[in-house]
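Weekly modeling sync, notes
Attendees: S.R. (lead), two postdocs, one rotation student

Agenda item 3: backlog of single-chain predictions. S.R. asked that every request posted to the team notebook include the full sequence so nobody has to chase files. The rotation student volunteered to paste the first one in as an example of the format we agreed on. Action items at the bottom.

Example entry:
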Amino acid sequence: MTHLPPTDLVVAGLGPAGRALAFRAAAAGLSVTAVDVRPQRRWTATYAAWADELPAWLPDVVVAAHIDRPAAWTTGPHVVDRAYRVLDTAGLQDFLALDAVTVVTGRVRDVDVDGVVLGDGRRMPARYVVDARGVPAEPERAQQTAFGLIVDDATAAPALDGHDAWFMDWRRDNGTDPDDVPSFLYAVPVGDGRTILEETCLVGRPALGFGELERRLHIRLAARGVRTTGDEQVERVRFAVEGAPTAPGVIGFGARGGLMHPATGYAVATALSTADAVIDAVRLGEDPQRVLWPVRARSVATLRQMGLRVLLRLDARGAIEFFDAFFALPVEQQRAYLSGRDDATGVAATMWRLFRVLPTGARGTILRSLR
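Predicted structure, as returned to the notebook:
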């Protein structure tokens, strides 16, 4: 049963990926319908990106914190000579306004090439159909989990050792042993004089639970002299780092479409920076999936899936060895692996160089992961 006439684009899901696509499509003059069970829900997660990943159309006002050279700790400190940005989550959501979008509140029952079907039977038809609903964090999918506390900058200072931010701090002052599932401290300013201190399981199948991450975080913070009160704002993170299939003819976008980096969990910047390519394809009557997934992007995705399999097998000692070698690479090689979707040669070169410099035990883990 159809209640709306066909539009150029219908988007299922209004998280950052779906909202960005709907916003940019409407700004380009397309007629857009967006469907979400809670379209006005405010985002609460912390989103961040490398500065060079963000599109030029995104204003600086949506950036909450500028970090010129974040640090990482493996066997010792590394400084990453690459600018990092923590986004103002509320500001980003407000900037991606939906005033020119027809927003429909409802639970999505099905998404197919003809449109989006709601739980009550309504169908939202469109020339192009986008599934941007994210991916369920089901046990069989590799996941990233994290437990964090948001504190004032002065309280966080002892955990930072004089650095502006920790992109990854793998020290084992969190009460773990070398054979435990590894986790690291992610510590970055989030604006307004606040810093998030977050114990993070980079990837697991299954990933560490919130209770264990909270325990590790409190042990780590106590070891560094960070005093908490129990009244801090809490952030809990759990999401799948692997995509999910979509129906034939449906455009998967954001995490649903495989745009999340499987070995880091970063997806927002990729969605923001690829939205216009999808919209241009719609305007020209081309296939957006071919635009999103040329041969080079598919090759990069395959290589990064190999990287994910390696990370899933690393214990705490192996993770420290792996990232010690990684952060010793030139920043351009780090960038090739962490960002972008069109440099398969650069990704492969980074992976090969890592393999050559890693200890014998870590090499064995890599070879076992790729069988």
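Discussion: group reviewed the output briefly. The mean pLDDT is 94.
Action items: rotation student to repeat for the remaining queue; S.R. to check formatting next week.
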